[in-house]
Please model this.
Amino acid sequence: MAILAQIQQKARDSLAAAAAAAFPNVTLPAFVVQRPREGAHGDLACNLAMAMASVARRPPRQVAEAIVAQLPGPAAAAALPLGRAEVAGPGFINLFLRPGWLLPVLGEVRTAHGAYARSAVGGGRRVLVEFVSANPTGPLNVVNCRAAAFGDALVRCLNAAGWRAESEYYVNDAGGQFRRLGESLRARVVELQGGELELPEGGYPGEYLIPLAEEFATAHPTDAPVEEYARFAVQRILLQQKESLARFGVVFQHYAHESRIRELGEPQRVVAALRAAGHTFERDGALWLRSTAFGDNDDRVLVKRDGEFTYRVPDIAYHAEKFGRGYDVLIDVLGQDHHGDVASVRAGLEGLGLPVDRLEVLLNQLVRLVRGGETVRMSKRGGTFISMDEFLDEVGTDAARFFFLMRTIDTHMDFDIDLATRQASENPVYYVQYAHARICSLLRQAAEAGLAVPAPSEVAGDALQHPAEAALMLAMAELPEEVRAAAEARAPHRVTTYARVLAERFHNFYVQCRVIGEAAPTAAARLLLAEAARAVLVETLGLLGVSAPERM
RNA sequence: GCGCCCGUAGCUCAGGGGACAGAGCGAGUGCCUUCUAAGCACUUGGUCGCAGGUUCAAAUCCUGCCGGGCGCACCA
Model:
């Protein structure tokens, strides 16, 4: 267990024992031992006295005093490196630990070999995270890019926290949209051969189909069925999407295809099962799902009057198929414009008797690009649509990932392109990366000066007591807990916030504490601290998928 | 009308039961003959949308309202 978690556990135990001794007839309420925001409030703070006040029938501060009186003295404190305890504020018990209590962090980072953030809270549970899943009808856009950054970082965080997480992309390569894509491509081929461009109703006017039309025309007969046009277009567009994603550092483990779900006859099976379970009814020549019985606002059509499935049938079938693969949790990252579909899919799954409570749907809110203080209006019709590739050309992978991951997924965000592309101090990406580059430079120069990074065991217990050193170690100690929280809350942006704090602590240390030229024990201890900070930074940036440059 | 998300500093956003609410940008002032100034230190700036409720304790949880975004097809 990580040092911070260990100490917190020991503090809990000591406080609980002290409280039991002071108030033998009182059942202990739930309480927390947390890290106070304010340094003056000690290393750890506990709310036990305030929580106990009513049952102990004494004012909180008196309860706190009584507990503190029962805490083990320094001699007996082998379990907890307690310096002193103090009653403060409305009745907090603040614990001040003996200097050096954080030193074990350095050893932990060293022996973890890049897996310092790892914890076991996930318990090996299997999670499938589906994200992006853009329609294969055109290039990826900026919102897809945000989803990619989020989903990929979430998978990384989950895996670090002890889950077994995998990524998946669902390809809608069937149905009406698919057919219209084929018709759009065919229209482009006709245009290429001198005809008039006649796009179908709801077709795809994007120019990206032109090179595809050229390619198609050279290898296929013009009278090929629409299916063939569509399959060709999807195959090429998907390839381009994969390239964009790869460039962004996102590689999916699984691609699931709607066409495959249909080939297997899953939609038919779903409809039959829902019908057999009595969750359907017929009206106006269509077959409906009684989804209101499962909390949906309206009942929904499953099979249209013309005998075709609505899109939600393969959707339900796909989710049922995912459950069938044995995952403990399914996570869908959806664009918020699709949130209306969630209830009916859930209803269908519930109707099939599947454990819908294990399906988590996270909604990816919109992104607005801001350039020169003005929002960049993006419209597919107006031709001002910005693709993921164009966006990455301008912003770069590191800045794009970092910026997207600074915000929670469930808030719309303004992406300030000017700030993200500025190569200067005010850009948070560089701030963090610069900390890493600085450490690397320091380590290089130390090596040239003949200074070797010592083993953690060689560092004296009273070393590294400068406030900036302690603050840096504390930040390092917090990583495993931060990653656990990010994984559990499905909130990788917490790691980004953490990265900024860690970088800040290092910059502070760097400015206040010199390494090269200091007395040997100090220089050695600081060198180890810097090296450990470097390792933690690398790991943190790795969770975000952002690079850690050695020089800037 | 119904549903989901969001209202925190001039702007963009963290903080999601604890003690005087934070960062970046913006505005202003210092610090490079010593390990990267893409840095550090300081100043400026907030009835945490409003009103109730729960709690020893609410920006944080609950309810209602107000404001903004997005959905509400036998399109996907």
In short: Residues 425-544 of chain A form a domain with the Isoleucyl-tRNA Synthetase; Domain 1 fold (CATH 1.10.730.10).
